[in-house]
Design a protein that fits this description.
This protein is α+β, with helices and mostly antiparallel strands and about 140 residues long. It contains three helices and five strands. The chain has a five-stranded antiparallel sheet. The two termini are about 15 Å apart.
């Protein structure tokens, strides 16, 4: 991907999305890396006993995927300054988590060219499950 620059960006521009299938292997690897072993993420019977239809993707994994999307979009010379999100919906195991973002503002502050974004994850039906905001510094 070519390096995005501050001058190229404008409000309303969408950034390159990232799609990640969150199968059982990904959830187990995330649990091992994060230490989040809550059974709703890997034990189907336990998850269903709590009222869920199946296992769900870790919220922090979705947060990390949003960070990955921003990092990949910002390129080698860009820097992710801030990422924040809220866990508002569940993403089920074996489904794609789609990360998207749109530029909401541009500004120069303390010598940095900053781009503010609305970011979110979507489930396969297009429902936003993890809305958030971010700021990225671009050359």
């Amino acid at each position: 991907m070519p390096q995005p620059t501050f001058d190229q960006m404008k409000e309303g521009d969408e950034i390159t999305p990232v799609t990640q299938n969150c199968d059982s292997q990904r959830l187990v690897l995330w649990a091992a890396g994060s230490g989040d072993y809550y059974q709703i993420h890997y034990d189907k019977d336990f998850a269903q006993a709590t009222g869920l239809p199946d296992r769900i993707t870790h919220g922090a994994l979705k947060h990390a995927l949003l960070g990955r999307m921003l990092h990949e979009w910002a390129g080698e010379k860009g820097r992710v300054q801030r990422v924040a999100c809220q866990y508002r919906g569940m993403d089920m195991i074996d489904k794609d988590v789609v990360c998207k973002g749109v530029i909401t503002a541009k500004r120069t502050e303390n010598g940095k060219n900053l781009v503010d974004l609305e970011i979110w994850t979507e489930d396969p039906s297009g429902q936003k499950t993890t809305p958030g905001t971010a700021t990225v510094a671009l050359p």
